[in-house]
Amino acid sequence: MAKKSVQAAVEVKLDELLPVLRLAEKFAAKNDLVAAYKHIYFRKDGGVRAYDGTSGAILRTPWPIGDGVGVPAGPALRLFEALKSDYDTVTVSSTDKRLVVSVGGDKENYPLPILTKDTTEVPMDFLMRDAPAPSVDGLDADFWIAVASVEMTVCEDDGKPTLAGVWWGPDGAMISTDNFRATRAYPKLAPRPCPDPAGMLIPRMFLSRLKDVRANAVTATESEVWAHTDQGSIFDRRPSEHFPGPAVAGIFNDLLGARGESPVVSVVDGDAAARTLGRVVQFSDPATHKVRIDLTKDRRAKVTVETPGGTVPTAFVELSAEYPGPAATIRVNGAHLQEALVHVGREFHVSESKSKLFFVDESRRVEH
Q: Which sign does the torsion angle of CA 113, 118, 120, 126 carry?
């Protein structure tokens, strides 16, 4: 009869382990296509890893919990989160088939089923690989604030992966577009040029996994983008097609050049106007949120929702706004305008063709 292998027990501090597990769990697969991708893996060097087939996390802890041992990511995280309510430390050991979490001097024992490195589906190449060295380091809050400033126009259409992210340009600009609007921002203090001289798209899902995590360095390889944190490194696959960064940047440059010739609309109370717009767009077509804005020289901007065909108004509001130009009518997505008033500013330029509204916040270095 084969002797059951038992690993020495390790005492683990939950306040140090949980941040690592929370980040790793984001990279475990959520579907059943490959069961091994739904696991978090522990290495004898203290490593903690997760991989969903395209993106992954290579993290580290001080504790040698296992040697390629994988446990179901969701159940494992929920167990450790629940234990944190009553305990600061837990004891972890493993056998051939179980990872056992014990607390209270073995008064409570919780077994988790494991996959070992001998299981066919286990991604051994991933478990053995190392993270690359940083291409750009010293990234601070100023850098990530610029990234966050453009996230409101990141494309969320899964059918357009080329636009689904934030483009980091060679000049340090951050750009996003959903094909209807666009935003560009620069770090206020010191723009950091992209490590790829052609620019690089940071995927939307990758950015969502970076929430609440401070990445201080980035690596760009031909096929992957990496972010390095105090807990380790995470990565995602780069899209095979290129984001139209130079073309979008060109539009912004043209609008900046024409700013002096375009009238400026200054909404008197941007926050109140945004709330008002939020109410009136409820009456608009959900597909377009199209509204008509009639600008007059008597400090008014009348916002009207029209029925399809643009003939019969169904709801309207009046906003106080300073407008030095001649009377004009523009049509715009009211929900988009509301977001811009909230996130960029209360002033915008109207292009000569009345087809574009251009917001600039010079203090924050944000253009929209």
A: positive
Q: Is the pLDDT of residue 1 over 50?
A: no
Global pTM?
Answer: 0.86
Residue 2 has what pLDDT?
45
Q: Are the beta carbons of 143 and 192 closer than 8 angstroms?
A: yes
Which residue blocks in 203-329 are alpha helix, DSSP H?
204-209, 245-257, 270-280
Q: What is the dihedral of CA 279, 280, 283, 289, to 10 degrees?
A: -110
**Pairing state of beta strands 56-60 and 232-237?**
antiparallel
State residue 6's pLDDT score. 54
- List strand residue ranges (DSSP E) for 161-299, in order: 165-168, 174-177, 182-185, 200-203, 215-220, 224-229, 232-237, 264-267, 290-295
Distance in angstroms (rounded) separating the CA atoms of residues 336 and 59: 39
- What is the spatial distance between Cα 350 and Cα 301, in angstroms, rounded to a whole number? 13
Query: Which uninterrupted H or E stretch holds 146?
Result: helix 141-149
Residue, of 243 and 125, whose pLDDT is higher: 243
In the numeric block, the tokens 């945004």 are attached to 274
Coil, strand or helix at 143: helix
| 8 Å CB contact between 73 and 23 | no
Give the tokens for residue 213: 């995590």
H or E element, residue 77:
helix 73-84
- Residue 192 DSSP SS3: coil
User: Is 50 exceeded by the pLDDT of residue 77?
Assistant: yes
d(CA 301, CA 320) in angstroms, rounded, equals: 6
319 Cβ neighbours under 8 A, 6+ residues apart: 267, 268, 273, 276, 277, 300, 301, 302, 303
Q: Which residue, 170, 173, 180, is CA-closest to 147?
A: 173
In the prediction, which pLDDT does 305 show?
78
Contact 99, 111 (CB under 8 A): yes
Which DSSP symbol is given to 131? P
Torsion of CA 51, 54, 59, 65, to 10 degrees: 10
Give the model's confidence band at 169: pLDDT under 50 very low, under 70 low, under 90 confident, else very high. Answer: very high
